[in-house]
Amino acid sequence: RKPDLGLVQARWDFVNKDENLLTRLQNINLRFHFEVEQQVNGVFLNFFGFNGTAGMWRIKALED
Fold this sequence. Notes:
Number of helices: 2
GO cellular component, one term: Golgi membrane
InterPro entries: Nucleotide-diphossugar_trans
Structural class: mainly alpha
Radius of gyration: 15 Å
Number of domains: 1
Strand order of the largest sheet: 1-2
Helix content: 40-55%
Subcellular location: Golgi apparatus membrane
Oligomer: single chain
Strand content: 5-15%
Keywords: Glycosyltransferase, Golgi apparatus, Membrane, Transferase, Transmembrane, Transmembrane helix
GO molecular function, one term: glycosyltransferase activity
Distance between the termini: 19 Å
């Protein structure tokens, strides 16, 4: 355990990304979001993007 850690976030992916045109396009959009948008925001804007479906907050971090 790391008491000073307030948030963890993981990248997620589609399991059926090659199933049809729609899932391929959704996968392209999601990859762009993680590989370009979040990286650029983090480097140039010092912006932290949180994707709620793939992350967890420590309640104490929110209370502080």
